[in-house]
Write the structure tokens for this entry.
Amino acid sequence: MKLDLREMLAGAVTTVPFAYTLTPPDLSAGAPGRLWGVRFPAPLCVKGTVQNDAGYIHMTLTLSADYIAPCARCLADVSDSFSLTLEKTLTTAADAVGMDEDKLDDYFVIENGFLDMDGQLLDLLYMEFPAKVLCRQDCKGLCPICGQDLNQGPCHCKPEPDPRLAPLKALLDELNEKENNNQN
Ligand SMILES: [Zn+2]
Ligand SMILES: [Zn+2]
């Protein structure tokens, strides 16, 4: 959504509250990193206020969403909600001219009296979404060999030897063999 800040910029109001829903990102074609397998059953809620304090324009915003995500260990669906709060300084496109890019990253830019922040909010969602969703803190996960859900009980697979330890095992075998030969 584009937030209309023209009245504020004209000095008619100092506060612009807003609340709207944002269409969740379309993840059907595959999702980057932490949004893998995540579904949003409802639109994301965006709520906040823009405040103009004698030319210093700043915003407080809360983005919240219900989501369903696969447990990082057993892949079971986990339903939870997520919210983040953001404080941002706003600047007009005219004032942004000449600002160096690093500095500009700290601002939301008002273009022709409107602020369109939805793209940035979705970027923020990609960055701030929980990196690891678990169905429960002590989820035992799936057996890497047979795929059995170990929360339902143990499987009958033998744990595979750790390949990193293979050279050590070879050395030990060699030593054992030498020892046996010496004894003979
Ligand atoms: Zn789990
Ligand atoms: Zn197994």
User: Anything to note?
Assistant: Helices lie at 6-9, 93-96, 101-104, 118-128, 166-183. The mean pLDDT is 89. Residues 2-128 form one domain. Strands lie at 2-4, 15-22, 44-53, 56-70, 77-92, 107-110, 114-116.
